[in-house]
Amino acid sequence: MDTPMEFKQEGAHAAAGSEELFIEKIAQHRQKLYGIAFSYLHNEADALEVIQEASCKAWVKRKSLKEDAAFLPWMIRILINCCMDELRRRKRVVPSDKAGEDQQVEMVSSHRIDLERTIAKLSAKYRHVVILKYYHDLTIADIAKVMNKPEGTVKTWLHKALKQMRQWL
Fold first, then answer.
1. Stretch among 7-11, 20-24, 146-150 having the lowest mean pLDDT
2. Taking the model in full, what pTM does it have?
């Protein structure tokens, strides 16, 4: 009978080698991954494209994953990095016709618009913590794993982010 440690190592090696198992893990967490991507990009097609890009990057780097239990935080970190890359690419591209796009956007409450603008003003590290905590209900411990930072740092960033947001709102 396998001991728990042997089972964990076996699972990590299986995730590193088996394409079917890797795809199954991505599919198992697809809703959470999509929610995170959409909260950064605000566009369904872009979110799906970034998930695909992150999945490809994760597949290439799968051997760097040491424990099977760390798969989701590892994948979320890759996804956030891909989202940030996409947002940087968007800044470089100047939209040619922005006026027609504004007419197609559905009405959203002014409070939500104010909140989204305020979150957008936050520095990247604060914005990540707020989005993961309040949009995706991750715990401080999970956020710390995703961001590869100590829990105390995440708590401080969350506190500072909320303080800034209160001042701006």
1. 7-11
2. 0.66
